[in-house]
Amino acid sequence: MSKPVESLKEATIRFAGDSGDGMQLVGGEMANTSALIGNDIGVLPDFPAEIRAPAGTLPGVSGYQLHISSFDIHTPGEKYDALVAMNPAALKTNLENLKPNGILIINVGGFKDRNLKLAHYDSNPLEDGSLDKYQVFAVDMNTLTRKALEELGLSAKIVDRCKNFFALGMVFWLYNRTMDHALSLLKSKFAKKPELAEANSRALKAGSMYCEATEQFVTSYEVKPAKLPRGKYRNISGNTATALGLIAASQKSGLPLFLGSYPITPASDILHELSKYKHYGVRTFQAEDEIAAICSVIGAAYSGSLAVTSTSGPGLALKAEALGLAISVELPLVVCNVQRAGPSTGMPTKTEQADLMQALYGRNGEAPLPVVAASKPADCFETAYEACRIAIKHMTPVLFLSDGYLANGAEPWPIPKAEDLPEIPVNFAKDPESFQPFLRDEDTLARPWAIPGTPGLEHRIGGIEKEAVTGNVSYDPRNHEYMTRIRAEKIEKIADDIPPTEIEGEKTGDLLLVGWGSTYGAIRTAVEHKLDEGKSVSRIHLTHLNPLPKDLGEILKSFKHVLMPEINAGQLVNVIRAKYMVPAIGFNKVQGLPFFSSEIEQKIDEILESK
Amino acid sequence: MSKPVESLKEATIRFAGDSGDGMQLVGGEMANTSALIGNDIGVLPDFPAEIRAPAGTLPGVSGYQLHISSFDIHTPGEKYDALVAMNPAALKTNLENLKPNGILIINVGGFKDRNLKLAHYDSNPLEDGSLDKYQVFAVDMNTLTRKALEELGLSAKIVDRCKNFFALGMVFWLYNRTMDHALSLLKSKFAKKPELAEANSRALKAGSMYCEATEQFVTSYEVKPAKLPRGKYRNISGNTATALGLIAASQKSGLPLFLGSYPITPASDILHELSKYKHYGVRTFQAEDEIAAICSVIGAAYSGSLAVTSTSGPGLALKAEALGLAISVELPLVVCNVQRAGPSTGMPTKTEQADLMQALYGRNGEAPLPVVAASKPADCFETAYEACRIAIKHMTPVLFLSDGYLANGAEPWPIPKAEDLPEIPVNFAKDPESFQPFLRDEDTLARPWAIPGTPGLEHRIGGIEKEAVTGNVSYDPRNHEYMTRIRAEKIEKIADDIPPTEIEGEKTGDLLLVGWGSTYGAIRTAVEHKLDEGKSVSRIHLTHLNPLPKDLGEILKSFKHVLMPEINAGQLVNVIRAKYMVPAIGFNKVQGLPFFSSEIEQKIDEILESK
Amino acid sequence: MNAETKTISPNGPTELKLTKKDFESDQEVRWCPGCGDYAILAQTQRTLPDLNIPKEKYVFVSGIGCSSRFPYYMDTYGFHSIHGRAPAIATGIKITNPDLSVWVITGDGDALSIGGNHFIHLLRRNVDINVILFNNRIYGLTKGQYSPTSEFGKVTKSTPFGSVDHPFNPVSLALGASATFVARTTDRDPAHLQQIIKRAAAHKGTSLIEVFQNCNIFNDGTWFKYTEKNSRAENVVYLEHGKPLIFGAEQDKGIRLNGFRPEAVSLTNGKYSEKDLMVHDEKDTDATYAFILSHMMDNPDLPVPVGVFRAIDKVCYEDAMAQQIEDSKEKFGKPDLQALLEAGDTWDVE
Amino acid sequence: MNAETKTISPNGPTELKLTKKDFESDQEVRWCPGCGDYAILAQTQRTLPDLNIPKEKYVFVSGIGCSSRFPYYMDTYGFHSIHGRAPAIATGIKITNPDLSVWVITGDGDALSIGGNHFIHLLRRNVDINVILFNNRIYGLTKGQYSPTSEFGKVTKSTPFGSVDHPFNPVSLALGASATFVARTTDRDPAHLQQIIKRAAAHKGTSLIEVFQNCNIFNDGTWFKYTEKNSRAENVVYLEHGKPLIFGAEQDKGIRLNGFRPEAVSLTNGKYSEKDLMVHDEKDTDATYAFILSHMMDNPDLPVPVGVFRAIDKVCYEDAMAQQIEDSKEKFGKPDLQALLEAGDTWDVE
Ligand SMILES: Cc1ncc(C[n+]2csc(CCOP(=O)(O)OP(=O)(O)O)c2C)c(N)n1
Ligand SMILES: Cc1ncc(C[n+]2csc(CCOP(=O)(O)OP(=O)(O)O)c2C)c(N)n1
Ligand code: SF4
Ligand code: SF4
Ligand SMILES: [Mg+2]
Ligand SMILES: [Mg+2]
Q1: Whether residue A360 sits in one domain with residue A335
Q2: Which of A382, C168, C282, D196 lies at a C-alpha separation of 20 to 30 Å from A528?
């Protein structure tokens, strides 16, 4: 390592190859190693449709983007400093976003004629000068990997599948990462197939050695650890954070966790993750469909579980009727909806925020429920926990919104202390004397939770309108009006617990950005840039989408303009406009991709200039 | 008939009895006879939960309210001029709305101790003076009916079931109605059981004779025919009008009608009605559930039917996912949703307008579709027809909203000329040369309708995002944005065909009432009263709820205040506020009952006075 | 555990001494006078005291339909849910608390039309839940449309020219879905109804009881052939484990197998005697035997079997799940939330 | 109409002369290399030309799953719909236009999990639709969760400690739902696959084909016992109408019935000969026979039957409906919209 090491504040790297090339694995490992070194990171796994496209084709390209930095960051980056392209298709679909003079590592071994044709290249970009404006490092990884593994006597197929680790080795060298974590990962991942661990380890080392030996790169880089707040950290994805948040709520409330779910992209990992924790008393029930899933959850809630169902858009649609029942019988449960691009099947592996209106209104009759949304992968922990807290305290189903970008994205997470998590007290009704199924708590308007098995509290509930207090079936007009209003009021009262909204920037000014969900990083980055430029711009980010925070109206009215970026065609913006009569402006992107902060910056400039 | 006949402009009559007493039948017959005489009528069948309550109890009371008049009316009336009470429970639940000094016809035979107790009467109201402020006519209809039918030798059970016709006979006499229609109705209704026809006919005549003979009533009344526009009329309920509207659209478009449905109150009658018309080529498919119903309809639309599904709130919730598919594949179909009180099972026999938000937004992803709402029972014909027209012209599923009040309510309908109905041209794609599954019509942005069986047009569609023009699966970000926007724009373009909004009252002023759906009658009556009083108040009524009429924004802004009465907790009002930034005020009633015009009048006064 | 000997959560050695009254709620029963539902309710209320399970451990879950009003009338925990979904709700209840005695009340529309999928999945999973299916071959609550058990050609509100759907045979369907306990009884035979309810309660695993129920308003008499005094004996054969299939007012007829086709034979014409007859074996692990019985219903020349068609042992879903939890606890130790949060690769920032 | 002789909408006397190529769409086939789906696609494309039905009359409808991508690759009308609902969509298509040849492509999750209800209702209605169920005993598209046909104890992404669900036997379930045509074949036996597809197409009524399909990514080898050259002959018995059930590489074993329990017997040890064996009768109107065959799958000592289990005649839903329409037209005459609008009691206002 005698070559100069240049210190960078941040770098954005993209691994791109065929779906079969293992880009997610090595990208993720670069992220983990960087996180362990102390960088802040942001990642964007960007893989194709669930189904495999033919090798080498454009729809078959799988990408993993990674932003590493020595300061606090909030996005996976936009333009890349370095791009690894394992084949022509990967080059074609990703080159556009490589910075001018960016580092382009190409696996020449993947640039066969056939692959060039599959990627619709008329000439070989390695030869036609079209890559001149980049620092191109063309390496025949296929051959080099084969050489490195020669003596192991493995099949050609196995050997060829190791070239992703060769590429990772190069990137490690380039960014001065240690190989320790990757090597131990390989050991444990292939514990039962040590020959694979050995092969990949060798490929990894070979990639690094190759750089060292051939002096391919003039410089190597380092990105120093970020000055993150003190504490213990781990790298965590949104779906894992959601699962942990639910288990934490179960442990803190003392209620057994029940997950009733039906697999669906990109929510399935919540089911997978939770099904590992049987020793935490977690019961996972893979139902026959989403309707059975939520209905099992209603039954579980009724009988005293912390009951949760997880799904994505089309699955939420199927749960609509049963969710209405849960609202009507006022049982606590949590619906985790990991949004994906719609409508209908849409683009299952792509992100979107377009299920908000469905979450708020997708049921028959007047059926309000609380909606909360996570803003970052790690924030899924806290927000899922908050959803459980609300459900239990207020005896209501709660809708927790995440999305594909959060679910698969990952970031360093300062691990909380279990004992610091908010308490979740549970008060099962016990006393036959005072018990009435729909007698409400004066503060919260919640009804009592009386679970089967409790002597003397035998009672009946159902989806027909109920008489106040007794819960008996009632068709009385005034009772219906009363119950409709009190159910709404109960939800409104949840706002009493919402902490004051944090404003970044001044409390009044020209422009306020209002965000929710996974746009957090892009909006925050954009606003901070603009604040650095001295612009009059502020920012709030909403976790509670129903009810909205009590101070929101006032905040909105303190700004000349309100801008609401959403990854949909404009949803929360209409709720805000209707409620506060504030002419908030929607800023929308519906491409199955998160915002770039630059897009938001441009919009900010536009508004500040034009008005 | 030597007694004085007093001429009335209008009268409101309520029949009330036990569910088993046949009140709906005789109420309906009084309506039919009155309509045939030329009165304008408005009716409100008001029956209990679908399930039978025990005889004589309060929840078992079934009511039929009828408003007859010699001028154009729009509601079933509020306070009754006359009330028929067959038992104590019926008296108890209905007396409140009988006008002071109103006519109260009581079946003394039903006032047994047991029945008084079931109705929670401590003393007999016939004896305790509590009815003093009414004109009470206490008649033992049980005994009188038995006497009248004595010689027929029928069982006591059968005889007792005829007393509703005795009551009707009394009401006929009181309002000077001819018995002709009722007698012929009985003949045809009991064609296979002539002894029942005879028994009921005798009871009817006995009721009338009794009045004539006993001089019970000092006066009888008449309500002269209304001056309705010329033409042929029939009395029609909302559900029947809906069914006929669909058949008419089928006939005019030349497309066979396919109804896929699952029974649910109060929509089932659409299925029942349509299943009679096999000779019109109508295929009705009673599916295993609502999901199968709409899916069968998607298949029927795909292969060239005029495809319709009918349901009510909880059923609409179940159709959400498939509706998203229909939007995504852009096939023409109509979803008839007959709203009932929610949430969940709610109050199935009671009316509400609370499914609007579900209709607009109850699906995953960005999934806009047109929504139209009928305003009167007979208007269901036109609006269902319009829904079909839009679906076919614009290649989109259309949501048609009715409600329990319209569905079961009835009114005289000026029968249209079939030849005057708007044309519904159908253009199936035929030409393989120019065909592309998602190549859009320039005007409407509709895609072509290419049905299986057409040679050369073999193509694939599906719920995954599609490439513009070709319809091939596409995950391209910009294509998704484009398709999302073009689907929305296609729906927006439907507004090009919406006629200018009719304003009743001045085009500008202090207060505009904006209504939709079944609030029509009550709002219109209220506004007309206020106009008579010289108040500055105007009114519009919306049939097209999405897209909204193009001229709506301007109209709204021409009034100081905008008031929006809805039978929900405030739904369209939020759409309007968000879209036009007009601080429209919601006025809401959520009792499972329609508005009384007096309630609206009071609210109008309040607003006009306070501001 | 043997299907016969099981008692759910017996309350120790002392008898609970509950009575029918203890199971009657304060709600007015709202079915049409004459409806068969009354009898099923009464027999259930009469039978439960004998099971010696504390009242608070009973949960009755229903969907939507006339029959589904049932839980309102039981003074136990009750859940009147949404159309067709009771099996899924009951599953969540039973998994959460296997100690409860969970009952699903459903109709032919609720269970076999909209709820068909949950119904067959419940059966295959063999969750220990008791299902009483009120089969009146009609949609009662929505006022008389045909149901999935209505006969081909049935004229109803939605089929004025007759239905063109072939009906399900609920017992055959249940057996195809690998049900472990299937029985049939009728609303007009109180003693038998009680006996079958007890048998279902005793069975560990999903128990399905099909009850022939009369809807005297919309489908009056649909089962009279099998339920009325004057015709019952000739048209019904009672299944009793280990006993030959004999029927007839004079007990003069029996069922014998010809290959695997059942035939009705006379026991008096000298051709056949008792020993030629099928001997009922509810414990046959091969579902074929019960399947044969189930199809007797479709053959107008044969009497319809009532009683327990099948009662076999098979591991219950909730037991297997509870076992996994126990095993995991054994293997991985006690929950430790902090350890869980800190699992995997972590690093410290100072 | 006889199941064997029917051809759907034959294009008159001349042959259409279509080829496999005519059924290949221009879309790239996107399954994992090695997936069993390729073979099923290829054999379907190879078989359709023989049916002599014009290309434009074919409609392939699917739900969601790897298998459900199938319609994209067929150059026919195709509809890739939503998860589990293809049977209902296909029903709407067939009722609207009975002249079409309608095919449903589905997976074990699509058909038996979320779509279970539509599946059994399609079978009972006997709409003339052909269903090809790709059974790989796993959820492929969502990356490897267990399905309703996965074995008890199966370790998958969602069951790290093994599944506690008892699986469905799809053929038994179909028979319980009164299917009129049920067959089984495998992705590794092209000739048989073709033959079965033809048989299904020829059947009037709902035809169900279960295909043992290998998912080499998430459930590799689940059927190898029955599909691979070296083990197939010993573990599979081919069903042929009128022929005895003989199997084994040397055709040296057979199946005989003991009561209604099938047994595998040797034909070489002198104890049993061909005439002792079950003779296959796909036309047996009593479903019991096919039910017995279906359960052979659950007995590890028996070979698994492939071929046509059952093919019986029964009136189709869409035919009965078309008949009612004809009858009504005859009875009530031509449509007259004006008359319809003016039906019932009317009056004139002058
Ligand atoms: C989602 C939904 N669809 C439809 C209905 C209307 N509905 C209520 S009960 C019922 C069928 C009742 O039939 P069954 O299950 O046989 O019960 P029964 O009334 O005969 O006892 C229907 C269609 C509903 N309540 N919910
Ligand atoms: C409503 C809904 N729920 C869940 C999913 C996710 N999903 C897609 S395919 C599938 C199961 C696929 O399994 P199978 O039917 O066996 O098909 P295979 O992929 O194995 O061919 C699931 C759960 C979905 N697309 N839609
Ligand atoms: S409608 Fe039929 S099933 Fe329902 S309560 Fe009345 S008699 Fe019973
Ligand atoms: S995941 Fe399995 S079923 Fe799906 S395409 Fe790949 S091999 Fe085939
Ligand atoms: Mg029923
Ligand atoms: Mg599968």
Answers
A1: yes
A2: A382
